[in-house]
User: Fold this.
Amino acid sequence: MTRTPDVWKLTSITDAARARAAVERITAEGRTPPLDRARFLTALSEQLRHCLGQGGEWELRLHLTGAASGHEGRLDASLGPAGSAPRTDEPTLTCPLPHWPAPVGDRAAPPLPEALLRADDNTAAVLRLLDEQEDLVELHREELHQTNQGVLALHSELEAAAEVQQELLESERIARAEAERARRLLTFLADASAATTATLSRSDILRRLNDILVPDYAAQLDVWLFDKEDGEGEEATPQRARDHSAAAVAAARTGRPQHAAGHPGDLPGVDDLPPSALSPQRPLLAIPLVAHRLLGVLTLTAPGPRFDPDTSVMLVELARRVATALENARNYERYRDTAEALQRAQLTDLPHFSGLLLTARYLPATWGMNIGGDWYDAFLQPDGSLLAVIGDVTGHGLHAAVVMGQLRTALRAYAVESTSPGDILTRLHRMLRHLQPELYATAMIARFRPDEAEVVWASAGHPPAVVRGADGTVGVLDAQPGVMLGIPVNCEYQDHRTELPAGSSMVLYTDGLVERRAEGIDGGIKRLGRALEGLSAPELEQDPGSAADALLKHLLHDSERDDDVCLLLCHTVVPSERERLPAPKRSLPAQLSGRAKGSYGARGVR
Assistant:
């Protein structure tokens, strides 16, 4: 092997080994890190083997570059054929030299045995470095494993927390849904209860119940009512029982709700039965209607394949409230019928009176408890005169009907001693103040004499009578009335006189005929006057009953009556044994449009 200061000529493997040993010494003195040195020398050995394998003479060119001596630089090594100029495409190996070594030309290759030992030292250094790196890698691997375990544990905890949170959210959703459903059922129960208890008519209750339940809570419903009288009921009749389902019959017999279906209902407080022959495809729920007693059975056909337990609880409670409403309606109807019967029993058969046609009508209220208290009366006096009476007692029901009977009887008793309408009302006022200090009444009395063409009348806070003259002119008796009967003030009622020749009519009435919530009583009186004006004289004389009905129809056809109505029509005629004389030209009462203010302002305290 020959060399120049920066070039080693290589012809054999020994030359290559010595050149490698020299390069190794340079990198060792330049304090190249063991790993970089091993990499550099390994790459150099690879190239040396490659070149020697091709044969011929080769040159190893070394070049130091970098800072001044004693400072960091690098060693560049390249291999090429001997005698040729270096080419730019030749591979060059570079090795860092942290400490600048002596020039390359001053370095001789160490003996081969020494070079081999030093190579083992390098290998040992590399191995130690690799052991340290392996320890470090193992440490990092362990840390990574621990980290992965922690991450897996964290993921597991997060997954468990997510499952718990999902379960909580699902539980909350279910609880909210159940609460909302319970709220809807309670709201429905309250609305349905209000609707069924707002009326005192059993037919209205059943109609509203059907509208409320069908089709959301029942495909259809059937109500089987027992009208018990004297201990016997509809359920005792086998024919009646055959018209209803077996579940309804069982509910009537046991007093417990019954569920009939092909599957158990598991409904709270409800017994299960086989499917009904009347509804084999859909379940039936038969609920007894129980108030103070068993009133009937409500049978519902399920709107779907089964009844919901919560809904069934609501339906059972609704049935209980409907039963109470039906019981109240039945008691009300019985009370109303009793009051009406008592009221009608005390109304008078009208007497026959020369020169006067009398027709009366009594109509009870169509709804509410406003029955009792209105009355009419007409009776003959010992002196041959006739007293026509119309009155209205405050309050309603049996008590008002009883007080009305007392007033009627007292009025007839006072009329025996006095024929003056004003004097009779004065005595009646004192009696009512003494016996019923918290009850009031209105009344009007008109006295007719056979041979007189005038009427004497007095009023105690009552609506004014409407008068139709023989010429068809209509007016009202507008004289100031006295106070209501029973008002805690002293009052002397005055008599008033009004001409009422043959062919004239006087209409006495109670406020239920003319009073409406949507309009004042004055408007009703005007309507009555127009209706009376529209009647003909022959109609009044030949059929006064039809004339009275026509007045009622005209005033009552467009509204329900929340008060009872009394009407007394008095029509004067010439007695049959006398010739008909023309009606005298006398002044009539004030016209409807000019009625005096406050003529009955103290009337009608209810």
